[in-house]
Amino acid sequence: MKKMKGIILLVVLSVSQTIGAQTKIDPSTIKDKMQWFADAKLGIFIHEGIYAVDGIDESWSFYNKKISYADYMKQLKGFTLKNYDPAAWADLIKESGARYSVITTKHHDGVAMYDTKMNDLSIVKKTPANRDMVAPLFRELRKRDIKCGAYYSLIDWSYPDYPGFLKDSSRYQVYKDYGRWNRFRAFFQGQIKEISEKFNPDLWWFDGDWEHSAEEWESQRIRHIILDHNPNSIINGRLQGYGDYETPEQNFPVTRPKYNWWELCMTTNDNWGFHHDNNWKTPYEVISIFADVVSNGGNLLLDMGPRADGTIPDEQVHVLKELGAWNRRNGEAVFSTIAGLPQGHYYGPSTLSKDSTTLYLFLHGSSGGNIMIKGLVNKINDITVLGSNAELTPKIVGKISWSPVPGLVYVNVPRESLDEYVTVLRLKLDGPLKLYQGHGGLN
Ligand code: GLC
Question: Looking at the whole model, is its pTM more than 0.90?
Answer without folding.
Answer: yes
